[in-house]
Amino acid sequence: MTTINNLFDELPPDRRRQLTDIAVEVSLPRATRLFEEGRRADRFWIILNGQVALDQHVPGRRAAVVETLGRGELLGWAWLFPPYLWHLGAETVSRVDAVEFDARVIRELCESDPVLGRAMYRYVAKTVADRLHGTRTRLLDLYGPQSSSGLDP
């Protein structure tokens, strides 16, 4: 699990202060829609407690939940990569307390400060890699061979 501590571990103390100075603690009630697929990604969160469901639009059906995030996890990375649009939607499953960051401010800091920028990109890349691995594991559970012999019972 990639957490805010992982990000802070990569930073010198003065850079940690920069991030904590611009962070905003938020409390979000259950069933709060945080963002929609295809809309502008202008912020991101690190979840302190509670759960958020990531969902994908399915034409003619209800959105499909593709992953649920919880304590210590990064919510949102589309803000870091042009064209800065969400690839999924997100809704709180329970009350969520989180640390919220303004994406534009963080992007500007990353551009002006290579140490902070490298740490942020590593943090987001690790998050993406961990989630990709988790997705592959779930796909194998759903569609992979059911036994190690390769033969059906």
Low-confidence stretches: none
What count of structural domains?
A: 1
Q: According to CATH, what is the topology?
A: Jelly Rolls
Number of helices: 4
Q: Estimate the mean pLDDT confidence.
A: 88
CATH class call: Mainly Beta
CATH superfamily: Jelly Rolls
Strand content: 25-35%
Give me the Rg, rounded.
17 Å
What's the architecture, going by CATH?
Sandwich
Largest pleated sheet: 4 strands, antiparallel
* SSE-based structural type: alpha+beta
Helix content: 25-40%
Number of strands: 8
InterPro entries: cNMP-bd_dom (IPR000595), cNMP-bd_dom_sf (IPR018490), RmlC-like_jellyroll (IPR014710)
Organism: Streptomyces tubercidicus
Domain Cyclic nucleotide-binding: 7-76
Pfam families: cNMP_binding
Q: Can you offer a commentary on this structure?
A:
This protein is 37% helix and 25% strand. It is α+β, with helices and mostly antiparallel strands. It has one domain (4-141): Jelly Rolls (Sandwich), CATH 2.60.120.10. The strands form 2 sheets. Strands 1-8-3-6 form a 4-stranded antiparallel sheet. The protein has a 4-stranded antiparallel sheet with strand order 2-7-4-5, with no helix packed on it. Helix 3 crosses helix 4 (114-143). The longest helix has 30 residues, at 114-143. The protein is globular and about 50 Å long. The protein starts with a helix and ends in a 10-residue tail after the last helix. The model has no long low-confidence stretch (mean pLDDT 88).
